[in-house]
Amino acid sequence: MTKASHMPPPQHGLPAVPSPIILLLNELKSLKIEQAKTNMELKEFRENFKANPCQEEEPKLPPTFHYRQPSVYTGKRDINCVYEWVHNMNDYLNLTKIPPSEKLLFASTYFDGDARIWFDHTYRDLSEDPTWEQFKAEFVLYWKPWNYKFELWHQWKKIVVTSTVRNFANDLRNLRNTINLFSPANAVTEDDLLERFLQGVTHLEGFCETLYSDFDSAVVAADRADQDYREKNRRPRLLHHLKLTDRRQSLDDESF
């Protein structure tokens, strides 16, 4: 028997199995085709963008703010309360973009007590509601104390040092600003402020009021003198307290 007679007979009708190298080359070829297609699309996109730079962008939403709401006004006849409520409400209405036709109704929801009764009695039966600007003037005219200017000047004359000189100076400055805001015809000048401050600190030891011509420097010097006075008087009280504590301790020890 010859050597060829031992070889298996050829199988007809079955496809030939491709080589792994051929499969890998075909895969790389497909990837190159896809990459070339993608590069072409990117190139077209860049060219279109350069040709039409003013393309519409998605609208950006404005940032969300949480505004501080005004306080409820109950009808207290205090010039500071009336002023603060009107200005806080006016700022809030402007910031929140409330329509002009709804401003008055919205503001009325921040009334309570006597103020609520006054609003319902005065404005509910009107055929035409006043504008917000008209209402502000009527509100201030009705609720501000009739003698508020006298009260402010009375406070100015009677204010004294109740705690520290620094606090007295701050209270005096705030009162001056309030008077100038509500009574500009009788405004308190810087010289008036200095004179009133010096009148209130004449009791300080080691402070000479004639050496100072402006408010800030006088406050600094008076505050230093006040602190020195408090420190000097604090030491004897502290020693007295320690002596009492030691005596109580010795009595407690003797009781045992």
Automatic annotation (TrEMBL):
Domain annotation Retrotransposon gag: ranges: 106-202
InterPro entries found in the cross-reference section: Retrotrans_gag_dom (IPR005162)
Highest rank taxon of the organism: Eukaryota
Protein's name in the database: Retrotransposon gag domain-containing protein
The organism of origin for this protein: Neolecta irregularis (strain DAH-3)
